[in-house]
Amino acid sequence: MVRSLIFLITISLIVIGISGCVRKSPAPRPANKSRAVPATAVDVLFIAYDYGESLAFKSALARLKSKTVNVRILTFGAADRAFRDVPEATQLISLLTTQQKLQHESLLNSLETQRTTTLPVELLEYVVSKWQPQVVVTGMASTAQAQLTNKFALKNAYTVAFYDNFDNPVIQSFVQPWLASTLGVNEIFIPGDYLIKDFLKIKALSSSEITVTGQPALDQWIQSAKHFNREQIFEKLNIAKNSRVVTFAAGYDQSSLNWADKFIEAATERPDLVFFIALHPKMDNRSDAPLVKKVAGLKNVKIAPPSVTTEELVSVSALLATHKSTVGIKAAYLGVPVLYVAEDNYDNVLISHDLAKRASSWSEIVNAIHYLLDYPDKKQLSFKKLGIPLDSVPHFDDRLLTLLGHTTKKANMPLLESIQTG
Questions:
Q1: How far is 72 from 42, CA to CA, in rounded Å?
Q2: Which has more confidence, 410 or 230?
C-alpha cells in the first residue's frame, strides 16, 4: 500500500512538472465566452416596464429599505426614465455585453416601445443569471416581464404580479401580452377588492393567490400634492394665476390619441379655460408628435412643458380629463372632478359609482365640461367604500415582508409544466 501511495505521488509530481513545462502561457479563452459570475442574492427584485407600475414600486421602496430589505429593480421601457435616479435600479440594456447589444440592436430598440417584444433565449438566460431573488415582483405590461418572471420562478423565486390599473383586466389591452406569456405566478397584488371576481376569471392566473394591496402610488401622490407651490406652477405654465386650468392626460397608443383629438376639438369651444395636454412619458414631448402639431395654432390649448409634472398639473386643475389613464383615479383621490373621454360602453369603478363622467362625442364632451365646471357636484369620494385601501404602502410592503419569511410555501405555485425555450 505504501508503494502504491509513493507511485501515485510520483506520477502526480511528474504530471505537474510536465504541465508546468508545457503551459508556459495560459490557453486562450474562446472569444465568445466569459467566466461565469455568481448570481447576486437579493430579497426582492422588481421588474418594471410601464410608468404607472414604476411609480407604485418607487413609492414602496423607502419603507422596504428601512426594514433592511435588500431590493433591486430591473428596468426597461418607460421604467428606465422613472428609475433613472434610483441607485437600486439597473437598466436591462446595461447588463448586456457590447456584442449582445450590437447583435440585438433592433430588438432592444423595439423592447423600449413594444409590449409584445420577445427576448431571445440567450438574452433571457443571461439577464436572469445576474440575480438570485427570494421574491420577484413584476408589472403586467409586457411579454418580456412575463418571460423573466417565468425564468425566475424556475430558479425557485416566489413570484408576484402587481396590477397597477383600476379597470377590469380582461378588457385592458396593455395586459394581454403579459397574460399570453405568463406560466402563472404565486400571487397577484391588486388595487381594490372589486377586481377580485375579474381576476378569478383569468385562466392563466387560476392558481394564484390574490391580495388586495391598494395602489402605493396614490399615497405618494397625496404626499407630493401637499408640498406643491401653486404660484410656482402657474409661473412655469406661463399663465395668469387666476386661470382656470383643465388637464388632459394623454396616452401614447393610437386609440388614446384619437380620443385626445376629439377632446381638443371640443376644448376650443371654451376660450375662458386654459387646456393643457400632458403627454405620456413614452412620447418624450416630441416636437413632431401629432398632438403637438394639432395644438400649434390654438390659443387656449397648450402642450404642458416638461418642467411641469402631471401631478403638478392636476393639483392646479379644475378638471382632469383622460381616455383611460390611471391618472383619473389619482385626480379623484385629490378631489379633482374627472372626465373620461372614451367609447360609450367604457366603464370603470368611478363611472359606475357616478363619481366621474364619460363623454363619447363632441357634444357630450362640451356638455360634460360645462356640467363638471359650472355645476360642480359636491359628492364625497370614499375610496374605502370602493374597496381601495388607504395607506397602500404598508399593505404592499407588509405583504412582501411576510413573504420573505415564508418563501418555501408550496401552495398556489405557477404552472411550470414545460421547459421554456424563450
A1: 7
A2: 230
What is d(CA 197, CA 190) in angstroms, rounded to the nearest whole number?
11
Residue in this structure with the C-alpha cell 383615479, named with its chain if needed: 329
User: pLDDT at position 378, please?
Assistant: 61
Q: What residues have CB less than 8 Å from 154, skipping those under 6 apart?
A: 416, 420
C-alpha cell at 342: 372614451
Residues in the chain: 422
pLDDT of res. 118 = 97
User: What is the pLDDT averaged over residues 215-243?
Assistant: 90
pLDDT confidence bin for 313, thresholds 50/70/90: very high
> Whole-model pTM above 0.85?
no
Residue-wise DSSP of 78-136? THHHHTTT-TTEEEGGGGS-HHHHHHTHHHHHHHHH-TT----HHHHHHHHTTEEEEEE
DSSP track, 159-188:
EEEE---SS-GGG-GGGHHHHHH----SEE
End-to-end CA distance of the chain: 55
| Residue of 220 and 54 predicted with greater confidence | 54
Q: What is the secondary structure of 291-319 as a DSSP string?
A: HHHHHTT-SSEEEPPTTS-HHHHHHTEEE
**pLDDT of the residue at 21:** 39
- Distance CA(73)–CA(88), nearest Å, equals 6
And the C-alpha cell for 277? 395636454
C-alpha cell, 264? 381638443
| pLDDT recorded at residue 26 | 44
